[in-house]
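Why show two proteins at once? Because comparison is the fastest way to build intuition. When a single record is shown, students tend to memorize it. When two are placed side by side, the eye starts asking what differs. So, the first record is below.
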Amino acid sequence: MSALKEIAAKYPTDKGPSGHNYIEKYEMFFEASRNEKLKIFEIGVDQGHSVKMWKEYFPNAEIYAIDIVDKTEYQEDRITIGVGSQNDPEFLNKFNEQYGPFDIIIDDGSHINSDMTFSFNHLFPMLKAGGLYVVEDIHASYWSWVQLDGSENFTNRVKHLLDSVNRHGKAGVASKANWNTDAVYVNKMVGEMDYWDLAVESVHAFMSIVFIYKSK
């Protein structure tokens, strides 16, 4: 099968070498599951290049995407496109109920802090156990001419997730298999774990892109 670099060149998405070159990072995380029957959900369609790239790269996957503008012209076999906003909870719920749960969610939408944060907080709980949530272009979270609503920088949300990965110190062992005998957790010395403490398995942050795994 063709490498992702070759496929990205075929479909001129800005994820490729001539743009952000996210494909180097994507291959690190996607190659092992490339042939699996996955459900992949991308926020943002633009000219349809990336959904076509994902369709070719994942030969057994179903590709789903949404955009606030009608992009259904890019629908085809194994590509389904909805029209709606990434900050509309009713729309996201309906889309997930109809097509989910998803194995991979990729946010390549508005890049507005409030939208990225809302979508992550809302969709991550709907992600399959062991699934992967990706947010692209987080460099834009620092740009004042993009972030006009004064909302918190999305990278701060990512930093808080590191607290969740470490369970806010609510466990004294690194393996969840040993929590039942962990004195710190069993004795409730520092409080109960919340949803995020239990759900966020790992965070992998790179320049402009972050990969967040959900616990199995």
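Second record. Ask yourself what differs from the first in the token line.
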Amino acid sequence: MPWRTCSVMSERAEFVRFATQEGANMRALCRRYQISPTTGYKWLARYRAVGETGLDNRSRRPLTSPRRTTAAVEAQVVALRDQHPAWGGRKLCTVLAARGGAPPLAASTVTAILHRHDRIDPAEGAKHTAWQRFEQPAPNDLWQMDFKGHFPVARGRCHPLTVLDDHSRFALAVVACPDEGGMTVRAHLTALFRRYGLPSRLLADNGPPWSSSGVPWTPLTVWLLRLGVPVSHGRPGHPQTQGKDERFHRTLTIEAITGRTFPDLTAAQRQFDAFRTTYNLVRPHESLAMATPGTRYQPSPRPFPESLPPLEYGPSDLVRKVQNKGVIWVQGKPYRIGNAFQGEPVALRPTTDEWIWEVFYGHHRLMNLDLTQPEE
């Protein structure tokens, strides 16, 4: 199959970044990007021969040359800042140096240029509050997932769904959704799992569709459990639990949403695709020692199963099917498990207390069940 027609350059650039990483499985990558091995090796060979210039026909002429004046160099700094108004001096000088052509600039020099050209609000530093950083040790150990606040388009509203790898800060998805329903999220997660594989765990907030009225189980999270992807939830009122995704939302707002109007979700998605490519492959990240997220991310070795794996229980397990209203029946009495598990089999296993049993869904422990407290 050909590359997706939306953002072909983004697809190719992302593909070759993964293909050039140590231990990359080319045939698996080609399957995930829905291209033939011949096509994958062709673009990899062009990339290795001439770099990103081999991925399209556009000119990659350097932005500057040694003969340009200081005024010209400043103009390049200002132009790059105008393209990326959320970038500070360190990011700008890193990108300018990587592009070549301009004399080396210190981050403080770039910051001074921005001040001279009124590109920095004097109060900007006082407004910024850094999140305390926690980082998973490897890619795909944890994905953070959330909806950014929705905004109007000419026809309807856009609900941006974002998924971020905790270790690398790689933006796996920035999707312009028409709603925040569970089936919408499931469809987009399925596409992500097919391309990047399954993470070890997902982190979400306490709102729908991954939680309902304080109950952590919804049809979406039950589906994820079935895939072997448990979902953790941030503490209510503590957005720093998902600090990386919250910070990502600020950057998304500044660079892709503020000051723009979109006729529909398709136009918003085009803008999101361009932003995501820049964020992953171009924009230096200070917490990554000015590397880009694409240099630290690798797809997961856990493939997405097209058919849900069967639930297996031991011969000593007491297996019950969850009935209407989310209850199971034990010794003729009803006990609530949760509406999200309706129609699913769960297993009960005894503890050292004869009246307390553990409830499992597959390999995942759900709760303790007190047999002295049936539903009324």
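One difference worth noting in the second protein: The chain has eleven helices and twelve strands.
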